Each structure stands twice: as C-alpha cells, then as structure tokens.
Amino acid sequence: MGRANEQTGGNKGGMTTVWRSDDQSPGARMEYISHAVADSLVPFELRPEDQTGFRCEIRTADIGALRFVDISAPDSEAVRGVRQIRRSDPELCTVHVQLRGHPVVEQSDRQAVVHPGDLAFVDLSHTSRVAGSAHRQVSVMFPRALLPLSRGDTRDLVGVRLPGRRGGAALVAGLVRQIADNLDEYAGGARIGAAVLDLITATLAAWTGRDALAPVQRRHVLMLRIEAFIEQHLADPGLTPGLVAAAHHVSPRYLYRLFEPQATSVAGLIRARRLEHCRRDLIDPANAGVAASVIGSRWGFPDPAQFSRAFRVKYGVPPGEYRRLSLQAG
C-alpha cells in the first residue's frame, strides 16, 4: 500500500488521514489545524510563534486500539488546560516519541526537555503543555483503561524524560518510527497494535519498577525484542539462533518454543529477512553498479555461491537474473 491511499485535507475513510496547513489560506490555517488536533488527539490551545507563516502537517492512523498521530510543527506551544479537558475528556493517555527537535513536555508541576529518540508519557485527563522550536513527534494514544498501572504509577511517569538510547524505550522509539514512516502498511493492524501496547506497557512498568505484564504479554514483548535484534544484526554472518538466544538470556530450546506458533523458525526468519533486503537492493537503481555478490555480503551472505542458491530457492532465479528481469519490467 502506498501514498495513493492517503486521504488529505482532513478527509477520512482511507488508510491514513492527513491534515496539511498548506491546504488552507494563511488566515484559515490556525482554525484548521486546531480542529485537526482536536479531531486527531484531544483539544489543545495552540500558540504558534508566527500565526501568519504557520505550517504544520498531521498524519493519523488507527492501529488496533492505538491511534498514531505523526505531527510536524513549527515553533509553537500546545496547552491542554482545564477548559479543554472540560470540553473533552475521553480518558486517554499518550506516549510521545520524539523524532526531531527538543521540546519541553510539562505536566504535574514537572517538566522535561526531550531529545530525538526519547519518550514522554502524558495523561490527557490532566493539564499539560508541550512547547519548543520546530519539531516532529509521534503520539501513540490509547485508552487509560488499557494500561495496567495504578494512578500512582502514572503520576510518577508524567513530566519526565524516558531516555531512548537503550532498553525498552529504544525499542519503542525504533518501532514507532518505523510504523509512522509506513502508516499505510500498518493501519488497521490489530495484532501489531496489541504488540506495540504490550511493549509500551513493559517499558513504562520497568520505569516505575513494576512488572505489569501477564505471561502472554511478556512473550509478545520478548518476540518483538528478538525480531528487532535480528533486524539490527542481519549484516553479521555470525547471526545464529544460538547468538539470538544468548543475547536475550534464554536457552536455544526456549527460543525454538517461542517460534513454534510462528510460520517460520528462527533461522528461517533470519534467512528471509536477509533475502528480502538483498532483493530490494538489487532492484534499487542506486545500486545499479554494485555487484550482486557485494549486496549479498552486505546482508550476511559472505559466500556468493551460498547466496545465489538461497536466492534462487526463494525467488526462482539467481540474483543477477532477478535484477535483469526487474529492470526490463520497470
């Protein structure tokens, strides 16, 4: 699915909803974007530095019980005060994932400067404020009732920065960014939405020092971590099921059991992801001068003969032939 499925100008019904201030005259932009924010998230009072040159884009998609809201905004301030809460309080919370810029997130008399890759938790039933220079953030919004943490636990989470350099926060940030960059591919996916919520819950619970996940949720989170680890280490020829198990402090036997409900094995997933990356690179015009064997080596196939055999099994023809046929078809 691609961009053709987007609905622009705030019209719904497609895979994503897109609001662009440039679709309106300068005099109508503030009202338009204020309505977009209220419709996509909850009501906020927007206070841009430059109302006449205000330029903003909002992209949203519902993924299971989650709503992803990808916002690119200029220098501005967004305030959710008592008046906005009285107007609409659907008892939602959100995890902001910062992709660009360094805004301040403020709630419950605490404030934190968040950096790219960081997370910030906001309870939308209470007053809050986000302010800063031009930035891009993705808000993952969901009903407060779906978060198995006490009110006391969530009070400890608001107004603080959750560094995204390591641990669960890093995985949440990377996964949310991947989804935001490909909203059409994920929109409506209940299973991926449930997995993301499990991962967010595990990350927030770990921050508060609690274990809020049921066993089945912990398995989902572990699978997400394993899949992310595999994706990040595909270029390493030494990536094996044993290495994956050791990196996640489980036995190879337990790792195999985790994959039993899946359509493939651990080794099968590693091979399939490597081959898919090779396939994409082979048909990328930017790689036209790169030998197929070099592309194979780039993705963990140091032996050209082994790469050619594996590619032929998967796609029916050797890598070089696949590239030639793709160029002819294109």
Structure commentary:
It comes from Kribbella pittospori. With 330 residues, the chain is of the alpha+beta class. It has 2 domains: 3-232, Jelly Rolls; 233-330, Homeodomain-like (Arc Repressor Mutant, subunit A, Orthogonal Bundle), CATH 1.10.10.60. 43% of the residues lie in helices and 20% in strands. It is built from 13 helices and 12 strands. The protein has helices at 29-40, 82-87, 151-157, 167-181, 183-186, 190-208, 215-232, 241-247, 252-259, 266-282, 292-298, 304-315, 319-329; strands at residues 6-7, 16-20, 45-48, 57-63, 66-73, 76-80, 92-100, 104-107, 110-113, 119-123, 128-132, 135-143. The protein has a 7-stranded mixed sheet, sandwiched between helices. A hairpin with a 2-residue loop joins strand 4 and strand 5. Helix 3 packs across helix 6 and helix 4 packs antiparallel against helix 6. The radius of gyration is 22 Å and the shape is globular. The relative contact order is 0.09.
